[in-house]
Amino acid sequence: MKNSLGWGLIGASNVAREWIVDAIRAQRGNHIRTVLSRDAARGAAFAQACDIPASTTDLDDILRDPMVDAVYVSTENALHHDQVLAAARAGKHVLCEKPLALSVHDAQEMVDACRAAGVVMATNHHLRCSALHIALHEHLKAGAIGRLNAVRVFHANFLAMMGGWRLNDAGGGVFLDSTIHDVDTLRFHLDADPTDVFAMAQSGRRGAAGVEDGIMAVLRFPDDVLVQIHGAYSVPFAPGGISFFGEKGVLVGRDCMSQRPAGTLALRDGDGERDIPLVHHNLYHFALRRFTQAVAGEGRPAATGEDGVASLAIVLALKEAARTGRQIRVGAT
Fold this sequence. Notes:
- The chain is α/β, with parallel strands linked by helices and about 325 residues long.
- The protein has helices at about 15-25, 40-50, 60-65, 80-90, 105-115, 130-140, 175-190, 285-295, 305-325; strands at about 5-10, 30-35, 55, 70-75, 95, 120-125, 150-155, 195-205, 210-220, 225-230, 240-245, 250-255, 265-270, 270-275, 330.
- It has 2 domains: about 5-120, Rossmann fold, CATH 3.40.50.720; about 130-280 and about 315-330, Dihydrodipicolinate Reductase, domain 2 (2-Layer Sandwich), CATH 3.30.360.10.
- The longest helix has 20 residues, at about 305-325.
């Protein structure tokens, strides 16, 4: 098993440009061979800007390249399914953006195909890679606040750009773009899936009519733990945060729901509030290191394909709850 990987980028996306290219190159021996875009000019400009040797509009150019060991998929959501299946058939390891697909069936099919092909599949859920969330998880597991009662997630911000898939009906909206990260983070911290969910959504502030640009959700996790999530594209100047309320105290993460290595973590109890020391690191460097190690047979990715399926199933249940005005039993048909 090799520790260095040749990569193909399937999608000339902003997240690839801003975060993933650097994170791949931060892993010893890893390199990027080519980038795919259906727009040839965009692909060529991306390759030049990121010092990537080649660009293409043909997926087969990447999948037939024997020097490409792994692919990062960050195309439009509706394209992930077929591209990941093709990568699995070609024997390429896969790091795929969330949501894996637009249906649980398609997402599970992607995971099954990668498993059958013997390749590693991971989902790009970055928040569980944060030093703050890792420390928070450790304190929860150590019983720092006792039995958990409730959790509050605040992940509402302002989306300045008015175009793009996030604000239209091509698989966009807060649920699939942002809340899905919150759901994955909750699964990471609670080591469980919710049993029931309910949500309300608003639209028309930043997105197209009918595409949610603000949501409020309530989820019930095992042991009767209640969770509240506020997500939005229309709330400027608001720091993201997460709070865990236990029988003995509260763990408070502030400014910690973004891609940046930032935020503070504090414990509040009968002795007052005190900061928990953190050593921040780049979230994507951490994720790519875990992915590269998994390809080498050392452990698992930070967020697996199975994690991606689970977060998608839960967020689609939340969308259904918002659409119907009903509480939805997760996993129920």
